[in-house]
Design brief:
The chain is an alpha/beta fold. It is built from eleven helices and eight strands. It has an eight-stranded parallel β-barrel with strand order 1-2-3-4-5-6-7-8, surrounded by four helices. Bound molecules: 2-phosphoglycolic acid. The site of 2-phosphoglycolic acid has 13 residues, from strand 8.
Length: about 250
């Protein structure tokens, strides 16, 4: 079964309502390949207005959600409220959440369960730091992040895994296609062994970390790279080229 190419745009805490409305209007008038599934994740304040504005073949997501669905959690985003408002996706376990907001593997596992329980789809981010890569611990780190999720959930059908090496995020230092492919292949092998072959065959494993229109085609050619999670470049016109990059490969 061919996996549908998936491109997420993580706007992070950038833009104004006006600038993001302009960005979405440009996306609405662009030629987007129907071979790609596209999700944009605006800052939480702008998720609903942009959901109203964006074309129907582009979905919206939040950049984070809490473990609990309601209660005294000042400043948090309820996964249930997202679902009730028709927001289908959430990004969980982004390295900025893990490092700056101290989200442990365990918390990310529990958040993933909470999001799936209310019916959300999850872009689950994993990835190693430079120090961990240099110590030869890349796959060990990624696996421990996946294990924490596997402890909480059984059904992986609404998950897209984003492999995002921390050293490549926002640095302009993209992983080489070979470096990325190696980890994506390891992730898929881990899934074969720990979840099952059918899931391994169908789950999308996307790459994130300094993806641009200049490097997306070579990355997209790799067998186990099923799309991208894009930060900085999702705020630029080249996001359209990244979405369409799979069509410039010979991949089925
Ligand atoms: P970047 O961010 O494309 O700006 O490196 C990727 C991400 O954080 O998802």
């Amino acid at each position: 079964m061919a996996r549908k190419f998936f491109v997420g745009g993580n706007f992070k805490m950038n833009g104004t309502l006006a600038s993001l409305q302009k960005l979405v209007a440009d996306l609405n008038s662009a030629q987007l390949s129907s071979d790609s599934e596209v999700v944009i994740a605006p800052p939480s304040l702008y998720v609903l207005p942009l959901k109203e504005l964006v074309r129907k073949d582009v979905a919206v997501g939040a950049q984070n959600a809490h473990i609990e669905v309601s209660g005294a959690f000042t400043g948090e985003i309820s996964p249930k409220q997202l679902h009730e408002e028709g927001v289908p996706w959430v990004i969980l376990g982004h390295s900025e959440r893990r490092s700056l907001f101290h989200e442990s593997h365990e918390i990310v596992g529990k958040k993933t369960k909470a999001a799936l329980d209310v019916g959300l789809n999850v872009i689950l981010c994993v990835g190693e730091t430079l120090q961990e890569r240099e110590a030869g611990r890349t796959i060990q780190v990624v696996e421990s992040q996946l294990v924490a999720v596997a402890k909480e959930i059984k059904d992986w059908s609404k998950i897209v895994i984003a492999y995002e090496p921390v050293w490549a995020i926002g640095t302009g230092k993209v992983a080489t296609p070979e470096q990325a492919q190696e980890v994506h292949k390891d992730i898929r092998s881990w899934i074969v062994q720990n979840i099952g072959e059918t899931v391994a065959e169908s789950i999308r494993v996307i790459y994130g970390g300094s993806v641009t229109a200049a490097n997306s085609i070579e990355l997209a050619k790799q067998l186990d790279i099923d799309g991208f999670l894009v930060g900085g470049a999702s705020l630029k016109p080249e996001f359209v080229d990244i979405i369409n990059s799979k069509n410039k490969t010979n991949k089925l």
